[in-house]
From TrEMBL, chain A:
Keywords per UniProt: Membrane, Transmembrane, Transmembrane helix
Domain of life: Bacteria
Name of the protein in question: Uncharacterized protein
Phylogenetic classification of the source organism: Bacteria, Bacillati, Actinomycetota, Actinomycetes, Micrococcales
Transmembrane portions of the chain: 25-44, 64-84, 105-130, 150-170, 177-197, 232-250
Automatic annotation (TrEMBL), chain B:
Superkingdom of this protein's organism: Bacteria
The protein, known as: Multidrug ABC transporter ATP-binding protein
One GO MF term: ATP binding
Cross-referenced PANTHER family: ABC TRANSPORTER, ATP-BINDING PROTEIN
Protein family (similarity comment): Belongs to the ABC transporter superfamily.
PROSITE patterns documented for this protein: ABC_TRANSPORTER_1, ABC_TRANSPORTER_2
Protein source organism: Knoellia aerolata DSM 18566
Length: 256, 310
């Protein structure tokens, strides 16, 4: 039997694991309310202040910052989903059913990351459509802009999800992984950038939160930050976290 | 066949399993016995690839467990009935197991019926009793209809019906030629179902033998006699016998069969009121074997021991 078949089966089981517990549905509901609700607020604001909107404005830009909320929601969902087995002891049957841990790691990272990223992107698109619906007619929803915006958002959400999964597998604790994720994505980039040292801005720019912020808003702690450097920063953190989590899954005893 | 060869497992400074070797044959129920902390569960976890052996190897039918692409079709195991996601339904738990091993969904319904969880399968596991979780764990073990089964304390939490059911199930599997390894603390249960026993203590092998061999090998053959002429009978028994006097009219004789004691009494005109061979229980044999290997001792409060507490 090929590894691809084992991976396909493990992935199907992962999909079942995600949607067979209530917490995934609760997360989906909460993230949906937050992201689409924010799109609604932006749309209402634009509708009430049509003079503030320049000619040729795009609804994608208006809804772009909802991606930040989508990021926090989907990272939290990725952390909770990836730590659930360890928190409940269910890692014992999971490893009995899929003892090839490399395959399990690949299936888990693939399915969780794809699921939460797709969810986040769909919600940001929905928020953009809501903004377009409420905004004055001169606010468009050009397809090209949408592709560019969603390209950045896919990178942000995908890397965020992999970061969450990696931290979850490395710590095997929902609380610890959530604290680390919030620190890396929100607290540390802001905090470090305020420090009165020469290296502070450079260090802050190397944190994943700064990369996400730059790709969503085009702003960062360094003036010379580029889309490429932001993408590389996010990808490096995601890969690093996943390597740490994968190492623990592959090398450690189940439950230790 | 399960083969454990020179397995040592340490957790930090604790040596849970120490150079353990044994084999579990097919077509038999093998009981896996030992005091708390003896290393039974650790050994099973090593066999199942959940914990990595510090040294040595454990294989199932010649392969390490991790090498099986569809392990549920090779080995069914119940290791820890509490290790399940409490927010999932029993049916979801089994469907995920089936998906992970390419097992058709209809098989999920079959094992649910087989373990008697029909009505409860749609409920969340957090609402299950220990016995129901055991049944669910057994259902997962049976899902792939595997030739090898490992059960760690399978009767925990089961009611009498459940105990009788699992007894029949395990015996049935062995009669079908499957390999069955069962750990349990219930010696009476083991005596009923096990063909062989592997006894470990402090991670080391103490005994690996068949059940009659274990019972015979410890304490030898003993005969209980009740007679009003106990002193006379004791005096005519040969020098190779060991005699104990549990009561004024009772003897417990070791080293000769009951028939020989009866013949001797008849030859000397000694009246007997009772003559029977005493079968040693597995519990006695187990306690004799594991004496000195028990790590965790409980103590009866002094007052309770003296009968002062009612």
């Amino acid at each position: 039997m090929s590894t691809a078949t084992v991976l396909a089966r493990a992935s199907r089981a992962e999909w079942g694991r995600i949607w067979s517990v209530r917490s995934s549905w609760v997360f989906t509901g909460l993230i949906s309310c937050a992201v689409v609700g924010l799109g609604l607020l932006v749309g209402i604001d634009v509708a009430n202040n049509p003079e503030s909107v320049p000619v040729g404005a795009s609804a994608w830009e208006g809804a772009r910052f909802t991606a930040m909320f989508a990021l926090f929601g989907t990272v939290a969902m990725a952390v909770v989903t990836s730590t659930a087995d360890h928190g409940t002891g269910a890692i014992v049957p999971t490893l009995q059913w899929t003892p090839r841990r490399g395959v399990l790691l690949a299936a888990r990272a693939l399915v969780i990351a794809l699921t939460v990223t797709t969810l986040g992107v769909v919600l940001v698109v929905a928020a953009s459509v809501v903004v377009r619906t409420l905004a004055p007619p001169r606010v468009g929803l050009p397809f090209g802009d949408g592709l560019r915006s969603m390209g950045d958002i896919v990178v942000v959400l995908g890397c965020g999800a992999l970061l969450g999964i990696g931290l979850g597998l490395a710590t095997r604790s929902t609380a610890a992984a959530l604290v680390l994720a919030i620190a890396l994505l929100l607290v540390l980039p802001l905090l470090v950038a305020q420090l009165p040292f020469d290296w502070a801005a450079t260090t802050s720019a190397r944190l994943p939160g700064s990369g996400a912020l730059f790709l969503i808003f085009g702003e960062g702690p360094l003036d010379d930050m580029t889309v490429t450097s932001a993408r590389l920063t996010l990808a490096a953190w995601a890969l690093g976290a996943l390597t740490a989590g994968g190492w623990r899954l592959l090398r450690s005893d189940a439950g230790h | 066949m399960i083969s454990v060869s020179g397995v040592t497992k340490t957790y930090g400074s604790v040596r849970a399993v120490d150079d353990l070797s044994f084999e579990v044959e097919s077509g038999k129920v093998t009981g896996f016995l030992g005091p708390n902390g003896a290393g039974k569960s650790t050994t099973m976890r090593v066999v199942m690839g959940l914990d990595r052996a510090t040294s040595g190897t454990a294989t199932v039918n010649g392969s390490s467990y991790a090498a099986f692409p569809a392990p549920l079709r090779e080995v069914g195991a119940l290791l820890d009935a509490g290790a399940m996601h409490p927010g999932r339904t029993g049916r979801s738990h089994l469907r995920i197991a089936a998906h992970s091993n390419g097992i058709r969904s209809e098989r999920v319904d079959e094992v649910i019926e087989q373990v008697g969880l029909g009505k409860a399968s749609g409920r969340r596991i957090k609402g299950y009793s220990l016995g129901m979780r055991q049944r669910l764990g057994i259902a997962a073990a049976l899902l792939g209809d595997p030739p090898v089964l490992l059960f760690d304390e399978p009767v925990n939490g089961l009611d009498l019906d459940g105990v009788r059911w699992i007894r029949g199930l395990l015996r049935g599997f062995a009669e079908e030629g499957r390999t069955v390894l069962v750990s349990s603390h219930l010696m009476s249960e083991m005596q009923l179902i096990a063909d062989r026993v592997v006894v470990i203590g402090r991670g080391r092998l103490i005994a690996d033998t068949d059940m009659p061999g274990l019972l015979r090998g410890l304490g030898g053959q003993r005969v209980r006699v009740r007679t009003p002429q106990a002193d006379e009978l004791e005096s005519v028994l040969g020098p190779d016998t060991a005699v104990e006097r549990p009561g004024p009219d009772e003897l417990e004789v070791s080293g000769v069969p009951a028939s020989e004691v009866g013949d001797l009494a008849h030859a000397h005109g000694i009246r007997l009121h009772h003559l029977a061979e005493v079968e040693q229980s597995l519990e006695d044999a187990y306690l004799s074997l594991t004496e000195g290997s028990v790590e965790h001792h409980g103590h009866v409060p002094t007052a309770l021991a003296q009968g002062a507490v009612r």
